[in-house]
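User: Please predict the structure of the protein below. I'd like the answer in structure-token form so I can feed it into my own downstream comparison script.

Assistant: Understood. Taking the following sequence of 192 residues as input:
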Amino acid sequence: MHAVTMTAESGESGFWATAAPIIPHPLEFFFGLVVFAALYVVVKRTVVPRLEQIYAERTAAIEGGMNKAEEAQAQAQAALEQYQAQLVEARAEAARIREDAKAQGAQIIAEMREHAVGEASRITDTAHKQIEAERQQALVSLRGDVGRISTELASRIVGESLEDETRQKGIVERFLAELESGDVVREKVGDR
């Protein structure tokens, strides 16, 4: 309204004095257009390049961050695959070690059994030899004792001394041989 009163005071008459207040005066329009053009040139030459530079830097930073994220994800995936491969390899190694341990355990058990059987056989053989030696010793001792006792008994029965050692041994050996072979003939003492 102020513009309308100014024009009315300046004495202008005509279209612009009675025109609607929303239609600008041509001088104001051209002045506004020149100021707008000057402002446009200033913004285009100074502000827009700076904004584009900032936008480019931000885009590069974002793309770089995305590239870094993709690289990190690729490295993480590669590390995961390597870890899984190592895990599979470790499991296979553990299975192989278990199998080796089982085989070694079975081998040790077999060796121990073989050793135990050999030791038992050796102990049994030693015991048999010792028993046989003791039996032979007892047999020799028994033969000597039986011979001595039978000679004493025969001496008492006959009333003579049968101390002749060679003769005594011969009689005792022959008697014991007859006993072992079962050729002993029983004689009745009172029938003669």
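That's the full token string. The chain has a mean pLDDT of 81.
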